Amino acid sequence: MRKFVLKATVLVSVALASTAVLADAKQIADGKVLSYNSSKGNCLACHSMPAMADADQPGNSGPPLVAMKERFPKKADLRAKIWDATATSPQTMMPILGKHGALTETEIDAVLEFVYGL
Amino acid sequence: MKKMNMNMMMASALTLGLTLGLTTATTVYADPAAEQGKILAGFKKDYPDVKFDDMIHGAMVFSADAKSQYNAIMEMPPFLDAMDAGKKMWDTPFKNGKTYAECMPNGGKQIAGNYPQFDDKKGEVVTFEMTLNGCRTANGETALGYSDMKTMGVVTAYARSLSDGMKVNVKVEGDAAKKAYAEGKKTYFARAGQLNFSCANCHIGGAGNNLRSEILSPVVGQATHWPVFRGKDGGDISTTLQKRYVGCFKQVRHVSEKEGSKMLNNLEYYHTSLSNGLPMQAPVYRK
After folding, report:
1. Catalytic residues of B, which ones?
2. What is the band of A22 on the pLDDT scale with cuts at 50, 70, 90?
3. Minimal CA–CA distance to B132: which of B123, B143, B122?
4. Contacts of A58 in chain B (CB under 8 A)
């Protein structure tokens, strides 16, 4: 019985862990699509992404998206930046993507997962 | 003694007046020359090699390739039929036999650089297109729609071509004119739309930067060459300056007021004054 419980726990844990990994992979993929889409996140309009070989003809109105984990040790800070960059930098050109509803909260999370890996 | 007091009072009043005048000039930038100078100085810091006269070419000052493509297109521009249609409208007499040329100042030649202008009697900014419509209504015709590019768009393209080479010379004189200018400036700097951009974000602060592959043009020079015929529209549909404003607002997802509205007239007044001293050319091709 004890063995069974252990086995079941391990199985459930593995299942949960793989679901989490899968969700991340899907979020990252969705985030990439949103980030490249000119009518959605449109990150490429202003930011280059040196890590992405297919990030064609990026703009240069914003800083390159590199070393994001080092630049934003707290992931929540990066999310806040994407959601409303003017809250911390009133003069920034960056569009207010979350607060103004250009992206939904789910879309913001997806963009965050993608950008955080850059 | 009494006379001296009077003189002293007058001197004080004069000093006060001068002081107030100076204070207003330095804080509100009601002087278009000072405003243009301030923006140009900021631009020169980033792009010291760009010549003032070349700023009529917009974003092409940053790209020799784009300029040479433009030169090739302008040798045989795609908008010649539209210009013929505009000339036909200009030359065709109104029902009462009068023409635009008889009604417009100086026969319509070398005048577009004076617009927009502030009409003290009407108490409002008057654009070149409003003057064309004024001729129509004064002669018993209906006014053309300011967003109608098939009529107003082509007749203004031809009418403005009669002012080629004239330097932009927008004047802002008197309190009412300064107020309209200040309102236009406010619109230019106000952030708008879901994306939260102001005109100034891109065309003052961001001039020369790229949005994807598009280079942002500097504000100085932008008002010298309207209407334009854009490649994206097939090169043969007129886009007036105010039509372009509406398009810009749409891009930042802002529902703006319409072509011919007081808001856009005031915006055009401020915006055009920033091109003072630059030669006009109409129409031209743009991407």
Report:
1. 248
2. low
3. B143
4. 210, 212
Does residue B256 register a pLDDT over 60? yes
Residue B11, pLDDT > 50, answer no
Residues B19-25 have a mean pLDDT of: 44
Q: What is the DSSP string of B166-193?
A: PBP-----SHHHHHHHHHHHHHHHS-BT
For position B1, what pLDDT does the model report?
Answer: 38
Q: Is the Cβ pair B195, A95 closer than 8 Å?
A: yes
Q: Cβ–Cβ of A95/B209 closer than 8 Å?
A: no
Do A60 and B216 count as a contact with CB atoms less than 8 A apart? Answer: no
CA distance A39 to chain B (A): 10
Q: Give A61's contacts in chain B (Cβ within 8 Å).
A: 206, 209-211, 216
- Name the residue among A45, A57, A102 with its Cβ closest to that of B194: A102
Cα separations (Å) of B231 from A73, B77, B87, B235?
46, 10, 22, 4
Q: What confidence tens digit (pLDDT) does each residue in B114-156 have?
A: 999 999 999 999 999 999 999 999 999 999 999 999 999 999 9
Residues in chain A: 118
What pTM value is reported for the model? 0.86
Mapped onto helix, strand or coil, the DSSP state of residue B229 is: strand
Domains, chain B, in order of start with CATH, read 33-287 (1.10.760.10)
Residues of A in contact with B213 (CB under 8 A): 57
Quick one: pLDDT band at residue A24, thresholds 50, 70, 90?
confident
Q: Are strands B117-119 and B124-126 parallel, antiparallel or unpaired?
A: antiparallel
Q: Of the candidates A38, A43, A42, which has an alpha carbon nearest to the alpha carbon of residue A65?
A: A43
Average pLDDT, chain B: 91
Q: What's the CA gap between B158 and B101, in Å, rounded?
A: 12
The shortest C-alpha distance from B206 to chain A (Å) reads 7
Stretch B78-100: mean pLDDT = 97
A95·B210 Cβ contact <8 A:
no
Domains of chain A with bracketed CATH: 2-116 (1.10.760.10)
In Å, how far is B143's CA from the nearest CA of chain A? 37
Closest to A26 in 3D by CA, of A118, A113, A104, A108: A113
